[in-house]
């Protein structure tokens, strides 16, 4: 593939350098249509009830409460995630792929999340070229990221790296210049595409900073696509690893989608999407919003669980060696629970079945990886842990989530710096949450501001005293 780009740069009326985005026209027509649908629907059904709020929801992290309008994906408790009404298997089957590759291209998935359709061949080619151009960081931005302390957690560096690029927000400038609110989505799209294009480079710089031992950072290679360039920044040129990265980015957006492709989006209620959405609702620009989402992703019950999960597996191997048995796994889980810790990679706030993203990881492993003790341990855990968790009688969903398998796959390909894994997730998640932000501004969604209650108020409400 040759994605040498013709220059897409032009100047906007306000003098900013803007791209004539390939996806913009397609999106504009859809936005105009959806704005009409949305406004008529709101008018007709503004007072229609769709559920009830219980004390359990208020005290239980709003579990089960639908309260966010989020356009790009929807999670089903049993079937898992749908991007624009397509499940992961349909995405895997229908998405454009690299020549000779099996996994979806993140660029195609990003286009799907934004527009609801996959790009045709020509659109994809131009979009890849556009993202390539948008993916450059200035020397100052690169220098700033390279100056972060090497022992700072990679997720802290990643979030700060995104913030280092924020002064170039086109949305923030347009807002300062007084742009009309009906046009917010246009510069939000500009920034959203810039963020998606830049995050592999930011994440690559973080990797190089933390683990590069002073090696020079490779430049973007115009002959490579999004995932392959990212894999190159990580110093991994194995062809199958680029395949894995593609998959990961689409899942965590996700590799991370399965990896790149399937972790990209997981409806709007998960912490990273919701934090991005919440901050965006103040009309903060996409860089500020995305960094907020990444700070949420860095929590151990959310994105950091993949690093925690690998630690769990490696600690197990330290204790039991490589000749472990399923009985050892049962004991280890029992000890983990008894010490008041969660078993990372298992459970979910919405899913009530094995996460299909985990199934994609398993399929990937079955196809590409043979005789890897750690991967075999992941498979054995899947046979043992759900029962062990179910026996506690309190875990709503004892099945594995996406984080249960990702670390072992990455480790297999030599990416053993597991403090870094959540950064991969973040690269992937950009595709989903940034696409959603374009739609939030296009639909003119208001600032989020739910009510809160003190325990005293809640008790009075239950007694009808308030
Ligand atoms: C990409 C992602 O973010 S996927 C999720 C990644 N996170 C993890 O894998 C961490 C391990 N899992 C968990 O902590 C939880 O299952 C969560 C955070 C994902 C979901 O939380 P909830 O919706 O509150 O789960 P649930 O309703 O099952 O919780 C009920 C009880 O079971 C416990 N529980 C749930 N999952 C687990 C687990 N994997 N190991 C041990 N206990 C668990 C909860 O801690 C809670 O205990 P408590 O009543 O003593 O406080
Ligand atoms: O949906 C959730 O709460 C967590 C999750 O799996 C994700 O964000 O990918």
TrEMBL record:
Family per record: Belongs to the citrate synthase family.
Family matches, as NCBIfam families: PRK09569.1
GO CC aspect terms: mitochondrial matrix
Organism (species): Stylonychia lemnae
Source domain of life: Eukaryota
Name of protein: Citrate synthase
Coiled coil: none
Biological process per Gene Ontology, one example term: tricarboxylic acid cycle
Protein's UniProt keywords contain Transferase: yes
Keyword Transferase on entry: yes
Keywords carried by this UniProt record: Transferase
Gene Ontology MF annotations: acyltransferase activity, acyl groups converted into alkyl on transfer
Lineage start: Eukaryota, Sar, Alveolata, Ciliophora, Intramacronucleata
């Amino acid at each position: 593939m040759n994605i040498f780009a013709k220059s897409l740069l032009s100047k906007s009326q306000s003098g900013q350098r803007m791209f004539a985005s390939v996806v913009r026209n397609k999106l504009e027509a859809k936005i105009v249509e959806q704005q009409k649908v949305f406004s008529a629907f709101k008018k007709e059904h503004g007072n229609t009830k769709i559920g009830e709020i219980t004390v359990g929801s208020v005290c239980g992290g709003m579990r089960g409460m639908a309260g966010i309008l989020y356009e790009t994906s929807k999670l089903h408790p049993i079937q898992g995630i749908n991007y624009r009404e397509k499940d992961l298997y349909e995405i895997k089957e229908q998405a454009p792929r690299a020549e000779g590759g099996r996994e979806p291209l993140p660029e195609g998935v990003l286009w799907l999340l934004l527009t609801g359709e996959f790009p045709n061949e020509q659109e994809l080619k131009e979009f890849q070229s556009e993202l390539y151009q948008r993916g450059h960081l200035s020397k100052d931005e690169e220098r700033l990221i390279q100056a972060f302390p090497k022992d700072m957690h990679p997720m802290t560096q990643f979030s700060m790296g995104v913030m280092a690029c924020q002064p170039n927000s086109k949305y923030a400038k347009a807002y300062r210049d007084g742009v009309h609110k009906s046009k917010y989505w246009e510069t939000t799209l500009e920034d959203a595409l810039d963020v998606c294009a830049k995050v592999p480079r930011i994440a690559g710089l973080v990797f190089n900073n933390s683990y590069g031992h002073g090696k020079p950072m490779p430049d973007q290679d115009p002959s490579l696509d999004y995932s392959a360039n990212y894999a190159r920044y990580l110093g991994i040129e194995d062809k199958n690893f680029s395949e894995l990265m593609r998959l990961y980015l689409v899942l965590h957006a996700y590799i991370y989608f399965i990896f790149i492709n399937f972790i990209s989006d997981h409806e709007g209620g998960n912490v990273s999407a919701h934090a991005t959405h919440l901050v965006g609702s103040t009309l903060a620009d996409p860089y500020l919003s995305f960094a907020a989402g990444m700070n949420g992703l860095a929590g151990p019950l959310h994105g950091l669980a993949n690093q925690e999960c690998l630690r769990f597996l490696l600690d197990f191997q330290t204790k039991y060696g490589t000749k472990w048995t399923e009985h050892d796994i049962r004991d280890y889980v029992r000890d983990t629970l008894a010490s008041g810790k969660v078993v990372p990679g298992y459970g979910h706030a919405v899913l009530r079945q094995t996460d299909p993203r985990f199934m994609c990881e398993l399929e990937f492993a079955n196809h590409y990886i043979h005789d890897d003790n750690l991967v075999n341990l992941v498979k054995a855990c899947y046979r043992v842990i759900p029962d062990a968790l179910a026996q506690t009688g309190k875990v709503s969903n004892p099945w594995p989530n996406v984080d249960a398998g990702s670390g072992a796959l990455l480790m297999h390909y030599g990416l053993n710096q597991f403090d870094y894994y959540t950064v991969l997730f973040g690269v992937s998640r950009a595709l989903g949450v940034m696409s959603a932000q374009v739609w939030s501004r296009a639909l003119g969604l208001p600032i989020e501001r739910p009510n809160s209650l003190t325990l005293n108020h809640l008790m009075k409400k239950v007694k009808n005293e308030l």
